[in-house]
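[step 3/7] fold_predict: job queued, chain A
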Amino acid sequence: MLLRLPEDLAAKLARAVAPRQRNRFLVDLLAKGLAEQEEARNQVLIDAANRMNELEAKHPELLQEAREWEAAELTDSVDVWDADFDREMFERDLAEAQKTRNQSALPAKR
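[step 4/7] structure written:
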């Protein structure tokens, strides 16, 4: 990956970090920033879940509605609405696709 920095920022980086340490410095900085972003995003979700739990505790009808949604079947099985669907062929093709994907994710042998 090629990363372009504005001239003034590149000059500051060059002055502040030794040449052989710049790559590691940028990697560490990005990792820290991305982890903080993920943590903040997760905290928003945690706060929302806690708030929903509080609301459901105060209003049992909300909890009942949530349980109804969880138990609901929104559509029939594909076997019902698609007469041409071949589950056996689908499962075989899916397994093959997953195998191919997993093999391509493995590091190359040397």
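[step 5/7] annotate
The chain has two domains: 1-72, 75-105.
The longest helix spans residues 22-58.
exit 0
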